[in-house]
Amino acid sequence: MTTTDEKVAGVEVGDSRISIPGMTEEGENLAASTNAAAEHSHGGLGESKEITSGAGSRANRHTGFDLAEFPQPTGREEEWRFTPVKKLAGVLSDTPTAEAGTDQEPVDYQVTEGLQGVTVGTLRDGEAPRGTVLQPADRAAVLAYRHTDQALHVRVDEDAEVTEPIRITVTGTQAGARANSHIVLEAGRHARAVFVLEHRGSADFNGNVEVKVAEGADVSVISLQRWADDAVHVGQHDAEVGSDARYKHVAVSLGGSVVRLNANFRYAGEGAEAEMYGLYFADAGQHIEHRTFVDHNTPRNSSNVLYKGALQGQTARTVWVGDVLIRKAAEGTDSYEKNQNLILTDGARADSVPNLEIETGVIEGAGHASSTGRFDENHLFYLMARGIPEKQARQLVVRGFLHEIIQKIGVASIEESLAEDLENELEIHGN
Amino acid sequence: MSTLEIKDLHVSIETEQGTKEILKGVSLTISSGEKHAIMGPNGSGKSTLAATIAGHPRYEVTSGSITLDGEDVLEMEVDERARAGLFLAMQYPVEVPGVTMTNFLRTAKTAIDGEAPKIRTWTKDVKEAMAKLKIDADFANRNVNEGFSGGEKKRVEILQLELFKPKIAVLDETDSGLDIDALRVVSEGVNRAHAENNMGTLLITHYTRILNYIKPDYVHVFVDGKVAEQGGPELADELEANGYDRFLAAAA
Fold it and tell me: In this predicted complex, what is the ipTM?
């Protein structure tokens, strides 16, 4: 048992509260009656603490298609300050995919074919809906857009219920070779579909995904980063969620040398429910960064964001920056975001920065929470007090922590294979 | 026949202001089939005693002893104590995300018994025990204590008490936060476990209300880390009438 035990039978007694799951650290809940301040941001607890300041409102962040507006980052910019930009030289340079369209192309795409109600095609720049949902928010996203001549377009017809997951497998075939990618996923009115984007192999991969979710549709996008150790992946996944639609984005990042994924959504109407989940596991030498942005731009929608990470080994590094913007127009919003990190060994570092900006007080709720730390000793104590030996209790706690996200995927075969991947990760340090 | 023997127990905790002694020489003996109630004002050390028996790492025993049938409990790890037959029903049961009740109950039962329970009888036992405690069947698929109300958490503690069949059970303010119906259901569960398993029961409470349902054989009044007075059930009646003032005045 370590000395981080700050609760006595559930009552907090210490000052340096470290809470992982279970958690008393529920952040703030700003009720509808609270006339909240326009800007509101908090740092996390635990290994590292970041209080955002001077970052400016998310509403003012530049987006657009002009590369000149996005100079090469130095690493000092707010949105790049956690990122090892030197390692991204390949993906951030203004060059086309190496030998595109030839046998030398460093990535290979496989798309599930022959599903009823699903059309697979391509879109050039200017062919809607390409470019109508995704607004490049950094240099990488502009480059991926500009250097992708034919974007992969997967469309699900109106009212189609696609029960089988639509799989898009991206396999890198050449470590260090640059690949640009732009993928457009589209679901018609009242369509139901699960898209599974799986990234394997190795490349310097710069990939945009835009997701158009029409009115009443129910769409999940599962993005699996199962790269080899030397892969680099930057990406922006944007969605626009129609009225009364449901959207779920799940990012699972296990492999790769550097992964930096921006997952964002906004709304096109009212009555929608949108969620983003994330699970990441960083080992020694890995940098895994997720940034999420929920833009409550229209009234009466709900959103939920939950990202969970585990870290082990020297220099294992993760970053989560979660922005939620509730605009003046977005009355009746219900929003929550949470990030939890479990540090399994010394030498790992997790940054966790939830940012909540609220421009109207007329909302259902807006909460955020963040915690970073080691095992919750109270969980261990509870399980051990029921006779479960310490090692087994630790295993239960860690797996429980991570499986919460896996349980959200809803595709049994993927859940099983990810559980297996996690077992392999945990084995490295005997957890 | 089992006996939990606590002798001249002194327990301290580390606080920001330094080491603080909470228990200042507690002696108690609880045997199979007996019901003991420990009553006392807030801050008198009741919950510290419960947590120390279970082995919570925050509490340091500076002197004295706890033995179960002659075995040194203080030398045992938390899980070994549970396997030896001690059970603590916690005042604030912990939520464990991602671990289902079904998985948890079976894992714990296997650890306590040293072998996996037979799946068919076990499933039936769990189902019946849940029904008696008026716990909804779908709780089995939910994560341990996650999103349970205060009353639901207490029922689940007693569910474990009934399923794990400890020799000696310590119930730490199991009555707190329960409405009258839940209090009755939970008390019936304790009485069942007590009768069926010839359990020794140590009931820690602030209020006499639960003693209407679980009749103690012995009542101990805790004040300032010590047993200030012991007696039979009539002592509880006196506390009900006069409160703790007489003891607090004496301690001051």
Answer: 0.95
